[in-house]
Amino acid sequence: MLSVLVSRDLLGCIFPYQDGVFEDLLPFCKDHGMYTRNTAHSSFLELDKKIRPWYNIFGFARLPILLEQVPKFIPAIFEHAAYFGLFEEMSILFAMWPLSQTYCLASLASANNQIAMVIHLTELQYVLVREDFDIAVMRGHTDMVDYYINKTAFRCSNHAINEAMTQGRLDILERIRDAKQWPGYTAEGVHRTAKCGQADVLLWLHENYGQNDLASVAVANDRLDLLEQVFALGHHPTVKDVDLAISKGYLEIVEYLALQTDLLSPPHTDEIIALGNLALLEKMHIRSKWPGFTSNGPARAAANGDVDVVRWLHSLDETHSPKLWSKWTMDQAAGHGHLEIVQFLQTHRSEGCSKWAMDLALENRHFAVAHYLVAQRDEGPSHYVFISAARRGDIQVIGFLHAFYPTHQGWTTDLMDEAARNGHLDVVCWLHKHRGEGCSKWAISLAEDHGHSNIAKLLTEWNICPTQTMDVI
């Protein structure tokens, strides 16, 4: 009797009626989730490492027990069978769960080029859909593509065509064209194809479907190699392409367009000047059709501090044409603190500057430039810089203005009013000590209204406001 009770055969009959999971099924209890048509090949390889050894030991006989004990593993088992072409496994699964259309099985089989599995699925009454064809096209499996072309009435999507284009799969594109199942493609697909450098595909699209903007596509995707190819075949860019290349900073494209076409105009040269590309400017000037530049070009070079570009542009202007240079050039150099350029312009040019030169230099606290302008120019500042300095609380600029422009009309009561409004106590005190303009009758109320009661109290004690009032403006 004891030998019967300890028999392994008897244990095998008892265990199915016990709670729990068989030991060999424990590795599958972990949640694997759904494996979709977009799952990476590496993920299926990891799944295969777990399930294939189990099949080798137990075969498919225990598969129903596995899925009964671990039902959350059902999708993974279905999709594993489809992806690796396991016919016996798939037949068992369909016998247990015939309604398995939601698992995208044909798409997974198509993704791994399992044409026999796709055929087997149709024999099991699985219904193919267009997305299955799309997967075959996007994965580049020519045999699978031929199957869908010959055995179904589907047209793949233009998204699938776009993917084939970016991969350079002319063989697949030609198959679909020849089968008269061409669904078209999108502009996005063309640009992605250009970005991937698939020149042969783009030329094929031109020959077969009239894609005529290949030069523009090459420029838009910064593909000089493609531009050179299509340009040699007679595809010419446009002025808009020049604008785009410059705005995007595609310097190689810009240089090619500048040297190989006559599309550039003076404003385009201004943009190249702003990029500081002196080497390209010199190459362009050697050409017989130099487009020239406008007065905006030197100003932008000056703002960027490109002294070599400024010197070179000056060397081209033998007649000192007022159309090519303006006061704004020195204004920009001063405003950005480029003293060397200010000095060069003062020495070699006659345009001079405007009051903006001093205003911008002081606004940006370029005191070396400001001192140079005091010594070399007579324009001086505008009244704006006085108010701005007081509003910002820039006592160093105010001190500079007091030292060099003590009688300027910019000295008004507005300065102390603005300093009081913005809470700059040190500026209020400095103006009270060094200047005689004082403030307006609104200074106290401006200070209080903006939460600067300490300044309001000080102004009251000084008794300098013409008519002190607490009214709110």
From TrEMBL:
It comes from the Eukaryota. PANTHER family: ANKYRIN REPEAT-CONTAINING PROTEIN. This is Uncharacterized protein. It comes from Aphanomyces euteiches.
